[in-house]
Amino acid sequence: MGKISNTRIFLIMANIESSGRDGFTSKFGVLAAAAGSAIGLGNVWRFPYLMGQNGGAAFLIIYLGIVLGIGVSVMLSEFIIGRSAGQNAYGAFKKLSPKKPWFLVGFMGIVAAFVILAFYSTIAGWTLEYIYLSAVDAFSGKSSDDLQSIFVSFTQSDIRPLIWQLIFMAITAWIVYLGIQKGIEKYSKILMPSLFIILLILCVRSLTLENASVGLNFMFNPDFSKIDSSVILNALGQAFFSLSVGMGALITYGSYVNKSNNLSNTSFQVSIADTLVAILAGVVIFPAVFSFGLDPKEGPGLAFVVLPNIFQQMTGGVFFAVLFFLLLAIAALTSTISVLEVVVAYFIEELKMSRLKATIISSFSISIIGVFCTLSFGAFRNFKIFEKTIFDLMDFFASNILLPLGGLLIVVYVGWFLNLSLVKSEVTNEGTLKGRFFGVFIFIIRFVAPLAIMLVFLNGLGIFN
Ligand code: PHE
């Protein structure tokens, strides 16, 4: 046993050294980092409120179908591009298809990373304020209106949200600066298990509340009359955002995965973990929402207004509130590092910068855009383009345009343009794995996924409804 694992470690190290590139050192490291990227605010903050607004269980069933039917294959496509090229998202396309315009897909991913991190870090910063507010017991004795105004006055103020956002960016930058093995892998391996433990504790608390079953019923008892095209399309958009696909984050992570990793298994496991966390986040939130007679359709404020209301009424509320916002912050952090790494890897490999310089320049410039996103809740809240604030515009541009378009081009590229035997060799690790689902995978990325993604995309732009 000891001998085998020593040999394996040797092979992995040899692999990393021979390429001269930093990389993940263990299967668990890959899983923790990729699941860390996928599991984020999208699961704990966005999924429950979308589910609340889109009919509960019916939404969940559609979502599951999309993740398994399409999501896993899009993720696998990204890993294939990344690992076979061993390059950043832009360099990967340039290496695999030189002199073809496919590198533009990679470039779009770099742009998407800038945009996503700019607005994502706003919400990530809020989680830090809410850890603080929970710890100083700021919610107790407050009415719903009070909690609403705490939220509004915090998000509208000029300085505090900015400070938290910059602190969050600094932590992200620090981990990314440390590199793959000593930064991203190391911290993901600590943070992801902590996240699962916190989530389970919160589930137990929520399920032991009075009338928890009403919330569970809302989650698991589908009313199919609620399903219409907008529910389906919302589920598809959410699946992409949540799985971190469409912008090259998983191309970049894939480039650090060693050749012995089973990419299909990894894609499957990451997708399952991501979905499990979204469901568990719902299990934490809905029984509590119903138990305290609040509205599941509250929207984006669900986590920041409805939950504090629940915590302050609950025994041990301070403790559970701190845990919950800590969970949100951890989930956000393992996602922000994956987004920043997309840009940093690009700067290092294409613009020949050191990791330190690449990290400083990228996080600094993203923070500048981020400041505008944060202030679009405060000083700039009346400044609108196409009737959207800067924050909404960035969110829309990334989630409804860049990610679906990127995802579409990625599956079309792997399905129709990348050499089929190269694809097969990546999926089967040069024929050493069976690759039982290879045919299904190819069918999905050639036909099913492009069609489905096209639908979300057109819907996102309002061309098709
Ligand atoms: N998947 C992350 C979440 O659910 C967000 C993300 C999107 C991260 C795209 C990386 C790339 O919060």
Notes on the protein architecture:
The chain is an all-alpha fold. It has a single domain, classed as Amino acid/polyamine transporter I (Up-down Bundle). Helix content is 76%, strand content 0%. The protein is built from 19 helices and no strands. Helix 4 packs across helix 18, helix 8 (160-177) crosses helix 9 and helix 10 (212-220) crosses helix 13 (263-291). The termini are far apart. The relative contact order is 0.18. It binds phenylalanine.
List the helices and strands and how they pair.
Layout: H1 2-19, H2 27-38, H3 41-53, H4 57-85, H5 89-96, H6 103-135, H7 144-156, H8 160-177, H9 180-207, H10 212-220, H11 229-243, H12 249-254, H13 263-291, H14 306-313, H15 317-350, H16 355-375, H17 390-417, H18 420-427, H19 438-460
Helix pairs in contact: 2-9, 2-13, 2-15, 3-11, 3-13, 4-5, 4-11, 4-13, 4-17, 4-18, 4-19, 5-6, 6-8, 6-15, 6-16, 6-17, 8-9, 8-15, 8-16, 9-13, 9-15, 10-13, 11-17, 11-19, 14-15, 15-16, 17-19
The chain binds phenylalanine.
Phenylalanine binds at residues 37-38, 40-43, 116, 241-242, 244, 247, 249, 335, 338-339.
